[in-house]
Amino acid sequence: MGGRPPKPHARHSTGKKVQGLKQRLVARALEEGFSKARVTRPQAVPEIAGRLAEFVEAGRHGQMRWMAQRTGWRGDPSALWPEARSVLMLAETYTPGHDPLAVLGQRDRGAISVYAQNRDYHDIVKKRLKRVGRWLLEQAPGEAIKVFVDTAPVMEKPLAQAAGLGWQGKHTNLVARDLGSWFFLGAIFTTVELEPDAAEAGHCGSCRACLDVCPTRAFAAPFQLDARLCISYLTIEHAGPVDEDLRGGLGNRIYGCDDCLAVCPWNKFAAKAREQRYAARNDLLAPPLAELARLDDAGFRALCSGSPVKRIGRDRFVRNVAYAIGNSGDRGLAQAVRGLAGDDDVAVADAARWALAKLAP
């Protein structure tokens, strides 16, 4: 994250328009498995530079130092690749087939965010983007593309709203009237001139469901997230011990959090996931905390193979498991975490001792 953008495919470009290409491109994207595709311009979101600066200056990015890097690119998509004339924004649904909040009532089980309960979306979406991109180059010889999926200094959500895919809700995530909240975003930047779609307006109205459900009160105001208080940030990005005042709010969430997404009323229109590799694996749907507490590095890697969970490593994952055990109120789980009090990782050992103190008679 925050490094150089990938080199463009194709050697040179003309910036020409190809008759009827946009309609055929969108149709091709849907054939490849995307749920929705819309076009915008790289210059369509001039407001994001100021928003990004305010976010970083307030320190709300926490330990995500990459957010403060390459701000020139991150705050201005047209600066990332000046030759780009159009951006194709694509949505790929991963709507769960189960109630993602049900596991929160099973205090002896761990809650893993829906998007991470099976295959890593980065790999799936990127390959799909590349197939669409190659097709585009075949239709417009001499043009060039770059594909992005959450791994480069690209502000996908504002671009997606500018393209008309949906709008950023009060929880700052994208919502669409025809997709709900459960979808990934991908982007294809290209030198091809494509007619842009109309931007989407907000449709949250007076609803506060996503703001009020947050266990750690991570929203400073509607549309303003303080990542330092967000459970997804705390369980995935934050290194070291979590502030003790925030540990109770984690509940049994051991990787990410879906609360603000799950309560959105627009999910009644959520589109069914088309990709079966996003369907929850049984061993990641609601895994027993006692079993997770016993994981060594090899066991962790075997369990999380192919899942986004793997990227946080065993230590951070087991740290989260220890917090969940401490929050369980189940003294029977004390034995599972007792051995972690002497763990080589400082944060794991600290979390285990905290859990034991919480479960003490």
Topology:
Blueprint: H1 21-31, E1 36-40, H2 48-57, H3 71-74, H4 77-80, E2 86-93, E3 111-112, H5 121-139, E4 145-148, H6 156-163, E5 167-168, E6 174-175, E7 183-190, H7 209-213, E8 219-221, E9 224-225, H8 231-237, H9 244-250, E10 253-255, H10 259-262, H11 282-285, H12 289-292, H13 297-303, H14 313-328, H15 334-338, H16 346-359
Parallel strand pairs: 3-10
Antiparallel strand pairs: 1-2, 2-7, 4-7, 5-6, 8-9
Helix pairs in contact: 1-5, 14-16
Would you kindly provide a written description of the structure presented here, covering whatever features stand out?
With 361 residues, this protein is of the alpha+beta class. It has a domain at 21-190. Helices cover 36% and strands 11% of the residues. The chain is built from 16 helices and 10 strands. It has helices spanning 21-31, 48-57, 71-74, 77-80, 121-139, 156-163, 209-213, 231-237, 244-250, 259-262, 282-285, 289-292, 297-303, 313-328, 334-338, 346-359; strands at 36-40, 86-93, 111-112, 145-148, 167-168, 174-175, 183-190, 219-221, 224-225, 253-255. A 4-stranded antiparallel beta sheet has the order 1-2-7-4, with helices on both faces. Helix 1 (21-31) packs antiparallel against helix 5. The chain starts with 20 loop residues before the first helix and ends with a helix.
